[in-house]
Amino acid sequence: MTQNLKTLHPSPVTIFKLWQIFLTNANPLIKIFHSPTVQIMIIDASENLEQVPKSTEALMFSIYLLAVVSLTTEECEAMFSETRDSLISKYAGATQQALVNAKFLKSSNLVTLQAFSIYLVS
């Protein structure tokens, strides 16, 4: 069942911070997409979360999740004023729902498959 996930996205500033953490901590290890292209997608999406394609939303949540997973508990609390466990729980659940919304089991969409791959790594 499709659910609206708009309220689960962080603020645009936090979205970009998580993106930068992902680029620094995770992207060098997994290199699953062209970072400049995805950065444009994320910036565009963060400006209008109502119109984000389901595949892009799944990718965004998987990036948030892996970014948080790559941080220590202390870093999460200092940067986001939330515990690492609560952030992981929130973004893992949101990623799972975003993948369902994008129909990842039947999809051949590259962005959806990238999101699923990042989720599996996290």
Description:
It is globular and about 40 Å long. The chain has one domain. The chain contains seven helices and no strands. Helix 4 (54-69) runs antiparallel to helix 6 and helix 4 runs parallel beside helix 7. With 122 residues, it is mainly α. The longest helix is centred in the last third of the chain and has 18 residues, at 84-101.
Helix/strand layout:
Layout: H1 12-25, H2 27-30, H3 35-47, H4 54-69, H5 73-80, H6 84-101, H7 110-121
Helix pairs in contact: 1-3, 1-4, 4-6, 4-7, 6-7
Main sheet: strands, sense, barrel? none
Q: How would you describe the shape?
A: globular
Number of domains: 1
> What is the structural class?
mainly alpha
**Helix content class:** 55-70%
Features of the shown structure:
122 residues, 7 helices, 0% strand
What's the quick description here?
The protein has seven helices and no strands. It has 122 residues and is mainly alpha-helical.
